[in-house]
Task: structure prediction
Amino acid sequence: MRVTCNWLRHPSSTLLTLGLLVIALPLLSRYALGWSHPYGYLSDLAIGSLLLVTLHQRSWLLSIPLLLVWCIFNLSTAELVNAVGRMPGPADLQYLGDAQFVSHSTQGSGLSQPWLALALALNLAAYLALRSWPAVRRAATFKRTWLLLPLSLFAVHVVCQQLKPSEADQWLQFNLPHKLLAESSNSAQQQLADWLDGDEPSSPPDIRGLSQLDLNGNPLLKQAGSARNVLIITLEGVTGAYLQASRQAIGSSYMQDPMPRLSQWAERGMLTYDYVLHSHQTIRGLYAMLCGDYSKLDSGTPKGLELLNNKARSEQCLPAQLRERGLSTHFLQGAGLRFMAKDQIMPQMGFDKTHGRDWFKNKPYLEFPWGMDDKAYFEGALSYVQQLRKQQQPWMLTLLTVGTHQPYSAPQDYLDRHANAKLAAIAYLDDAVADFLNGLEKQGVLKDTLVIVTSDESHGLENVRLASAWGFNLLLAPEQAQLPVLKHGVYGHVDLTASVLDYFAFPVPANIAGRSLLRDYPGGREIMSYTNGLLRQHDGNGTLTECDFQQVCRRYASPGFIADSARYLGRFSGKPARLISQRAALLDQSLTGNQAEQHYQFANSQRIKLKSTVSDDWADNLVGAQYLTLAKDTQTTVTLKIRALRLDKQGARLQLKTKEYDRDVALPIPELPLLTRAKPMELSFAFDNLEARKAFSFHLLGQGQGAIEILDFSVTSKPLEAKLLATQENPEELPSP
Result:
């Protein structure tokens, strides 16, 4: 016992404990989390050795705050990557101490990596306990020359990134402090370079190659298509890597075959394998494919929401165009409609009928928080098609699945046969969609219907290049014999609207962008994508450029967009890199014309049946006001009016939450009063945005027995008056009471 105590009192014990906390534990957790990458281990060693040299036997005032932040950074990174597949950024720093930030999926289900939290806490406690021993306090500190070790490791990391850049995810190559340091350093370098280079160019960059309509290719069909109907099947999160023909076409090294039955169907249709998904999020994917326009290449307010204030542009979307030409138009998804305001956006696009989870009367095979499991969903969708075929009018139907959305939905027998829930859910979807296509064939639907199978976004694959932007387009038409099995060339969601209109030889509105999948083009084309925090541009002449979070761009020799590998050509930053960002910003230009005042109405006066309990801020949300951008120096006013349609005597308890980047943010929101049949709710409040709020969401939650009607949920943002803004920035100027 005395030997043990003497060892603990030895000065080397604190050094060992500190080393375990700042070096060994990050390296071990990286391995345990499956994040092994040489650059990541090098980053951990660089930051860990810097902390070790800096903090060993330094002042408590320095060591305790830094080590606490270090622990929070490590845990927060693991939790956020697990929840939404990205690292924290500068905008997240204010939430790092928030318990919700480190929850499994921001839904309050607890830590996904409790072992990491426990290990960090125990190591930190052990270090602080040993530091309190008198013999330890007298130990010597490191000399300043030891700082050469971490600085050398940082230099090696920078050199390796330049000589052999990696396309791996950010968290594989950096730990969070290193990433933030790299961003700050690169931003300072760019500001210096901009100052040395001089002013910005006077004219904006040319984006005509990205935004124009191009129907100059050679038609694949001799005349207009013979189909009467259009069916678009949208599979949640599916990447093109899941289809065998797509993998073979690009020579992919991905060896698994998650969707063999859909792969067999791909051999019967025309498969476009070099197919680009422009962004993440379902509503952005739906907008791009159904409105012939790029979804925003950043995290700003989705254009689908902005479409609510732009009727003229809405009338150019594919459903509106087909409705104008005599088709009845329908949208059917397996989830509820209110999330992301699809209950309003889809009708605005031109759908006559928009249905969600409440439409389905068939019993689901699984309980899934987002909605119908895929097998039950496609059985319901098949009956919907049967109803449409009984009518004389031609139709357009767009389907959207939900079972392959995190946390993934699959029966136990699928879970038993596959390595994880994600692969099991993909296999379950594969069987469901293949059975659905077989059912369509038996009904004779394929003889008179243009069928397109695609995905809204890609949930990506580890160690598969560009998987987050890799989609697919499988087209089945009555004229299949005239179409190739593999469609060569680079295409994307921006091309889908023009392709369908071109199939029918309908005129395409001037504001629709893209090419037609039903034409062959002699040359390449420009196209852009923004996924996993990387902005990518292909110039149509064999060069793909990829710009990362450090605002550093890398060029690759790549004939197409999607490729298993590409030859590295070099890197650049400064004005050339900023030019790419400017082109993306021009494509992102708001449908509302970037007006200073923005107004959104999220109420549609529909009957809403309440649940007795609320368990999920997202699935149980009663309004679709998600992922808004509230500009800097504006004031946002929210007006809410709700009445009871049928409630018991206990009434309904409502709560309004606000989130930024999917995490709770505290704002001066008044408590909502109890809603009863005798007393409707009317409420208005405002809050200021001294800094821009991005990915901002409102979550209206309600529980009770009965139903309610939301008469008004309006959000208006106006610029702050100059006088008010001045007093808020300088509160000492406020008059004395």
Summary: Residues 625 and 698 are 5 Å apart (CA to CA). Confidence is low (pLDDT under 50) at residues 94-109, 731-737. The chain has three domains: 2-194, 224-479, 598-733.
